[in-house]
Amino acid sequence: MMVLTFFNHAGGVAKTSTVRDVGYVLAEGGRRVLLIDMDPQANLTKWLGVDEDVDLDRTVYPAILGEPGDGTAEVANGDEPDLRLPSPLQVHGMDLIPAHLNIAIIEREILTVFLGVLRLRDAVRRLHGYDFVLIDPPPSLGQLSALAVVASDRVVVPLPTNRKGLDGIPTVVKMVREYKKAARDLDIALFVLTQHDRRTRHDRESHEIIAAQLPAVAPISSPLASRPAIYSDAQVEGLPIPLYAPGSEADREVRKVTQELLAALGMDA
Ligand SMILES: Nc1ncnc2c1ncn2[C@@H]1O[C@H](COP(=O)(O)OP(=O)(O)O)[C@@H](O)[C@H]1O
Ligand SMILES: [Mg+2]
Predict the structure, then answer these.
(1) Ligand 1 atom at minimum distance from 196 CA
(2) Fewer CB near the terminus (10 Å): N or C of the chain?
């Protein structure tokens, strides 16, 4: 089982889109995939077509703090060893632990738990039957992001080929180094280049800088092109790109990036 967190503290860099689409391609290829939505905004959950408000006990909450609202959180504060992820929803051939606005409570409650940052790592390691677990954290440097990254074997960094992407790199690299203190073997597996607009000189130049400098840190993927219409329509339909626009250039790019990720992980395509 390989646990990957798609981490970048900046918002709007295509973390959620990339988890959705790479997860779908892996599952379509016969791998057993679990997606974990750790963002209280629940974009991943909604974009996979889950419309109803899910209960908090179907989210990551019970795996981190025990059953919501019944005082187990305090029991778990002792040495309750066996917090587990709830049974997942099924979406497009993948399993999904959905998010709810109220998982934001974890940010505060986890601070009173000794070694709380390891809680999701422990729960994920009790899972059976998955080849990949892909975690979608919120756009922040809070406890939810720390829980997500510390739970993973490798980090995938979605990175737009523009000024915003370049500006965020030092913080991403520094934070992964910080998180390594709680998960020693953690490393960046791949920078996935996103939202690339090759028609603008700014994006082409940013891409050149990334291609010249980042491979010293970790491999970079081929770019996912900026395609606002396809990406926003796929969201409305609740579908991953390969299901919304099969055979399209966008579909081919997502598949290529997934193969590059497998290669970066040293796995056969
Ligand atoms: N390749 C792309 N082309 C155009 N829009 C994109 C692309 N990838 C993502 N987007 C859009 O950018 C916005 C931010 O993406 P999202 O996946 O939510 O990022 P994050 O999870 O990092 O905040 C979304 O509206 C998404 O549809
Ligand atoms: Mg997101």
Answers:
(1) 1
(2) C
